[in-house]
Amino acid sequence: MSCVELLRQSRAGLATSFANFTALICYGQVMSGMLKMASFYFSISLTENLWMLIDGAIATGMMLTISLSGPAERLASSRPTSRILGPQMLASVGGIVLMNWLFSAMSYVWLFRQDWFRCNEHSAAESEATKWWLQGDNYESSIMSFVSTFQFINNGFVVNYGYLHRAKWYKNYALLTVWAFLMAFVSYMLLADPNRVGCAFRLNCGTSSALEDLGYGMPTWQIEPYNSPLGHNVIPQASRYKLWGYCLGNMVATNLWQIFVINGPVRRLLQKKKPLRRLKVKL
User: Fold this and answer.
1) Which helix (H) or strand (E) holds 235?
2) Rounded distance, CA 61 to CA 55, Å?
3) Could you give the residue ranges of the DSSP H alpha helices within 163-220?
4) Are 228 and 122 in contact (CB under 8 A)?
5) How confident is the model at residue 246 (pLDDT cuts 50, 70, 90)?
6) Angle formed at CA 149 by CA 145 and CA 154, multiple of 5 degrees
7) How confident is the model at residue 279 (pLDDT cuts 50, 70, 90)?
8) Is 81 within 8 Å of 175 (Cβ atoms)?
9) Residue 71's beta-bridge partner residues?
10) Angle, in degrees to the nearest 10, between helices 237-256 and 139-158
């Protein structure tokens, strides 16, 4: 193996390690940020099956496939960052986290302006606190579930850009396959009418009588009674598409930040105007 090939592979490995690190930090900030604050404020939780989807499929699948990206075709003129608390890492993580928090907060601003939500707010006094696995049977939890789940999926995708040291993002076929499947799966739960999949995650679903009253017909599958007086958390169809577009906007914003600021023209401009002082080694 030539020295050039060794450097090419080594730099790709370093860049991949930092990409995984960035994704995990963003994952933790979504989990411990707005998601936890909303849980404590509204006395709600994600549904039991959704926790398993996030930790078992999304986090594991995206983290594994990030590492499958190969090295760039040519050796770059500069090495990748090796500073965990350097400006590149802080700007990348900080920008993604702040945008995710902002979009999460604004989703509740949007929710409280919806006519179908007013007077249907979750009240901890009207639900059984002992049934912790059913604390997601409300609109507040549904909004938090969809917004945060799309953010979890995006956290793995947004760090896949490695144009200098890793292969082009569209050549990581494993990651794109996992990402596309997860996006389609969660989008189906959000956009479709009440069905077996959504009801398994207790999203856009309700008790049999509540769904029949809404005009969806009597479901043929078993549904555990909802832990709320309303009896369902079905979002109206028009609002589902608005929420879906809002979640996609969150993803686009963070990707643009990564493309143009962290890896693109803004980064190159700052490198020219304010280059980092590197240690000079004299032989």
Assistant:
1) none
2) 9
3) 173-191, 196-200, 208-213
4) yes
5) very high
6) 155
7) low
8) no
9) 166
10) 30
Q: Kindly report the CA angle at 222 between 217 and 225, in degrees rounded to 5?
A: 90
DSSP label of 95: H
Both tokens assigned to 105: 């907060």
Question: What is the tens place of the pLDDT at every residue in 173-214?
Answer: 999 999 999 999 999 999 999 999 999 999 999 999 999 999
Please state, in angstroms and rounded to a whole number, the distance separating the CA atoms of residues 24 and 18.
Answer: 10
**pLDDT over 90, % of the chain:** 69
Q: Which two tokens stand for residue 118?
A: 């007013």
Residue 265 pLDDT level (bands cut at 50, 70, 90): confident
Average pLDDT, the chain: 91
Is the CB of residue 32 less than 8 Å from the CB of residue 122?
no
Using CA atoms, how far apart are residues 142 and 232, in angstroms rounded to an integer? 11
Asked whether the beta carbons of 234 and 224 are under 8 A apart, the reply is no
Record the pTM.
Answer: 0.92
Q: How crowded is the C-beta side of 16, counted as CA atoms within 13 Å? A: 22
